[in-house]
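User: I'm preparing a small set of examples for a lab meeting where we compare how different chains pack in three dimensions. I only have the primary sequence for this one, and I'd like the structure in token form so I can line it up with the others. Please keep the answer compact; I'll paste it straight into my notes.
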Amino acid sequence: MMKEIDISYRAMFAELTQRTLDAQFAADFPLEG
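Assistant: Understood. Below is the structure token output for the 33-residue chain.
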């Protein structure tokens, strides 16, 4: 039970981190050029 929660938490945290990195990248390097 606890292991499943840990996996779900890690997946959610990883996605949140990735979105934050994507947002930061987009802010630093606008697609418009």
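A couple of notes for your slides: The mean pLDDT is 88. The CA atoms of residues 26 and 33 lie 11 Å apart.

User: Perfect, thanks.
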